Amino acid sequence: MTREAFERDLRRLADDVVQMGRRAGEAIHRAVEALQKRDVALAGQIIAEDDAIDAAHLELEQRCLRLLATQQPMAGDLRAIASVFAITIDLERMADHAEGISRAVKRLGSAPLVKPLVDIPHMEARIQEMLRETLEALRTHDAKRAARAAKMDDVVDELRNRVLHDLLDIMIKDPQTVPRALELLIVARHLERAADHLTNVDERIVYMVTGEMRELNV
Amino acid sequence: MDRRYRFRRGKDRGMAFLTFLCTIAVLIPLFLVLGFLVRTGASALNWDFFTRIPGAAGEPGGGMANAIAGTLLLIGLAGLFGIPVGVLGGTFLAEYPNTRLSQLTRFTADVMNGIPSIVMGLFAYVLIVLPMRHFSALSGGVALGVMLIPTVMRTTEEIIRLVPQSVREAALALGIPTWKTTVRVVIPTAAAGIVTGIMVGLARIAGETAPLLFTAFGNRFWNWNILKPVAALPLQIFAYAISPFDDWHRQAWAGALVLVTIVLIVNVAARVAAGRQVKLR
Amino acid sequence: MVQVMEVPRVDRQAAALIDHTTGIQADQVHAWFDRLHALRGISMSIAERKITAIIGPSGCGKSTFLRCLNRMHELVPGARVSGKVVMDGQDIYTPGVDPVQVRRRVGMVFQKPNPFPTMSIYENVAAGLTLAGEGDRRRRDEVVEQSLRAAALWDEVKDRLHKPGTSLSGGQQQRLCIARALAVSPEVLLMDEPASALDPASTLRIEELARELAKDITIVIVTHNMQQAARVSDFTGFFLDGQLIEFGATNDIFTRPQDRRTEDYITGRFG
Known about the structure:
The complex is a heterotrimer of chains A (218), B (281) and C (271). Chain B has 281 residues and is mostly helical. Chain B has eleven helices and no strands. In chain B, α1 packs across α11, α3 crosses α10 and α7 runs antiparallel to α8. Helix content of chain C is 35%, strand content 24%. In chain C, strands 6-7-8-3-9-10 form a six-stranded mixed sheet, with helices on both faces. A four-stranded antiparallel sheet of chain C has the order 2-1-4-5, with helices on one face.
């Protein structure tokens, strides 16, 4: 069979991207967990581990460049490698948002939360669902699945609006709560941006499979 | 290991030496003949030999000037008949190699190559001498010319075949008609090789004696009229050799030397022409 | 430090030589070598003043198709063509059309450079004119210079026009052949793997030259080098087993081909 080594490299590339996606997703999950448990140590850990994810992104980029230079990929292969290149950037940003959430957790310290956490965990759950679908779509080259995953971003946006609304109410009623409320708002914003990055990934997946560039971030 | 290598090297050297000996063996007769000719013939080579015609029987002196001229005339006539037919025929064979006509032509040429030269002479005798009622240089030229055709045709065919198809394609793709491609591109490309073939053919017929016996017939005097018999070196050599006169014997050797020299010169010229042939592979 | 390669500046001399160019419409072209059905119903539109590339594995019929465009295929004993090839509104296979005239209108450059071995550089370029009876010496000189300029070769040979054509390097010989083809002012230029016998630097020069020439003349190029097709052409046709599988804008063919077989070939999965 021709291009065995190349095929192997492509498969490994795909596997490693999925792996990186899982790590980014885990970082988000643990960050929100740290918030719920008020676990500052955990937050510190997540911040430290972000470096490793950055390194993983760079390594994947390098591999993509090497394949582009040495294998002259065309058509589907070319789209795949170009997509992986872009996807790792979005995944790295996702992980950065997890880091951002962890910094907020550290800043909150042990101060009491201004409201019980309801929507934020929901957002996180939605994001995990999006991530699962997205990674599965990536693994199986399923453009339809990726498009469906992207749609879930609407829910996350909706939840973020609710959080904003609730927190505004609280902040107006009691200005003392503003610093703590703002941290929660920041967390919600990080989660919303993480979901946006996932829709970018979904767009890349659609392009990789069909060759069409479609805006899914409506 | 080393012993096996040395044995192989020894065997290699031995074989090379053997081949060298065989080469010498081939060259020896050639040099013997040449040497013999030079030794016996050179003495009779003088200015008279090249400028005077034969004297009366028994009288010493005289030369073979008319025979030398006659041989050159006959070669010229033969070329006139044989070269165009040979070159054009060879070109036809090369360009249309698989038609029935070309297969027949090729076969005929090969057979003609094998026909004894005296039969060629008889052919010219019947064709030209009989209707004309006398011998002539023309008939001699025709006989030699017909002998020239197969050689020239085959070598022309070979060399034209060697012209790569890419040369033809280049010309055709320019919108040059097929016939023009053949005449203005292919043949010039093969020109030197064709000339070589012609020279080799001429060298061959220069020394033919039998076809001239009943065609050119020989002549003791100067003659430039192609409708009359003409002297030729091979004929003159033959006539002198069977004569009882010593002086004529010596002149025969000289004649043979001159003839061989002519053939040698033509062959060398052929080599030079071959060297100027554009490399076709 | 990246070394920038010296690429010759190409003069627009091609415009001076080419007074007319046209696209080509192939309609259900079939071709045979005796019994062998080499081309099966090729229908393709070759755009004017663009480079159209034809790619495909060995034996797929791409060279055969090219030779149908200038009526060279029928020169092979036993070869046959059917279908229409329309240039300027006229089918070149209409009975009564002189194939020699067609070949004058459609020039061709071959895989292995083939300058005439007995001719000088000047004579090579002028061959198309000389052998057609163009007698005017000045006109010939003019055309030779224009052609050599158009082929980006003038500066390199202008001082040795009377040296043999074969004394040039491979890349130069190929440009000489291009000049020779241009000298008869063709309407279309066909290139059959023009760079496959050349080193990489010469290859890129030929490609650059093709792009420059395409401003004035329609070019069809057959290549087995996909990257070359991608670099050089505006449109690409993929041939397989004598059929045209897919045809489209080069960009589309190489980033998202529609047919699975095209994709497999382009990504090197076969052929």
